[in-house]
Each structure stands twice: as structure tokens, then as C-alpha cells.
Amino acid sequence: MIFSMTGYGRAVALFQDKKICVEVRSLNGKAVDLSTRIAPQYKGHEMDIRTLVASRLERGKIDFALWVEQNEKNDTPSINTAVMECYMQQMKTISETTGIAMPQNMMEVLLRLPDVVSRKEIYEVGDEEWAVTLDAVNRAIDELLAFRKQEGEALYVRFLSNIANISSLLASVEPFEKERIEKIRSRITDNLEKLVGVDYDNNRLEQELIYYIEKLDVNEEKQRLTNHLSYFVETMNGAIGQGKKLGFIAQEMGREINTLGSKSNHAEMQNIVVRMKDELEQIKEQVLNVM
After folding, report:
1. Is the pLDDT confidence value at 115 over 80?
2. CA Rg, the chain, in Å?
3. How high is the pLDDT of residue 122?
């Protein structure tokens, strides 16, 4: 079975007055490319999170986000009246001493001064909260993996269709291949017969024809391509994480199709080869997204 590298997962956990939210997204990539956005209070566990995400998702460009939505009452900023009064008293003293008038927008000025407005300090995450958070991270990853599996099943069906189409096109080459050989033989002998007063050795001509036709023979390419098609399907049905291997097989399939096209020397066969290439390009494009 194959898995896609595209996926999305989200999980939410409640702990006391906090809602812990986790989101993880992934796209195709050659290796693990992980970027994280983690709430400040969980920065101490960032390496644990990165290790977990990388080990479970294995490959892809991964975006991970962890944030906390707290109860508004506990997250509301507070005004430190003692600090504000101290600032005001100092400003009055300076005004009386220097003769500089007090500002008209006194409240606005005071609120901008350091430590007048304060927020709740970042707390340290305890073991119980971390266990709840870790469970949410794993649930988000589970959801993403389920998404990857679903996408992989769709890719599997698409690949089987492409492989079946290439196999069918390959089989349709045979009648044109026989026709092509007869046409080549006939064309050469007809041209020789038109040469007036030229005598030629029929045995030597037959040898040259055999040599020429052998150079245009595509049986080996057809056999190798058939083997590659079977190996592609076999690999899809094997272990997870065969995306790179499938890409290599697709490259080998392309080589055989290209050689088949260069040897065809027949309009209908070349049309078939073009259709094979179209099916193969669809495989190459989508195989980049396979785990």
C-alpha cells in the first residue's frame, strides 16, 4: 500500500481553563523539512515535539503549530496603579521644578510607560499538562496519517489505471510492428528493382535486410517495459515508504518508451508511443507525492 505525503490533522485538548490546539500539515518533499510554531510556555518541549513529529511522519514538508487559548479572565491585562501613581508624582515634581507643563493626555502617556500595564507571566508547564498536550499532538498526527492513507488509496487507483493503459498501448504495437517490417522489406526491394542495369546479390541483400531489421527490433524494449510495469505494481503492493523506488522505476519505464519511439520508424507506432509518454508523465507527476 502507498501513502501520500499530503495531509492535515488537528486536535484540541482541554486542561483547566486552557484550550490547547494542535495543527499539523504536510506536503511532498524529499526528506523531513519541519517548521514549528510553538507557544512560549512549551518551548522547553520543542525538541521532544520535533523528534516525535519527524519520526512518525518520516518525509515531507511539514508545518506544525501549537498554541493555547486561555480563559479571557485569566488573560486580561492589568494596570499597576502603584507604578502609575509613582510615575505621576515624579512628573508633577519635575513640572514644578522645571516649569514644564503637565501633558494634557496624561492617561495616554502613563499607559505607555514601562510596567504600567502587565500581563500574566508565562507559567511553567507541569507533567500533567504536558501529558495532555502530548496526547493532542499524537491525535493530530493520527488524523494526518489517516488523511495520507486516504490520499494514497486514490493515488494507487490512479497508478493502476496508468499502468493498465500503458500495458494496453504496448500490446497494440505488435500488429503495426509486423506491418512495419514488411513495408521496410518491400520498400528496399522496390527501390532496387527500379535501378536499371544494376545487378545485386540476393543473398547479400537478405543479409543486409536481416541486419537492418534487427537494429529496428523492439522486442527487448517491450519485454523490459513489461517487466517494469509489473515491478511498479508489485512495489506499490509492498511495504510503505517506496515513493523514491517508484520514481526510479518510472524513470526506467521512460527509457524503454523513448527507445521504442526512436526505433519505431512507423507513424502509428509513434502515435502509440506519444500516448504512452502521456500516461507515464501522469505517473511521474504524482509519484513525487508518494511516501
Report:
1. no
2. 36
3. 54
Please tell me the distance from the alpha carbon of residue 143 to that of residue 160, in angstroms, as a whole number: 26
pTM value?
0.71
Domain residue ranges in the chain: 7-71+125-147, 78-118, 149-287
CB atoms near residue 85 (< 10 Å):
11
Domain 7-71+125-147 is found in CATH 3.30.230.10: yes
C-alpha to C-alpha distance for 259 and 246, rounded to whole angstroms = 20
- Residue-wise pLDDT for 199-214, tens only, equals 666 666 666 666 666 6
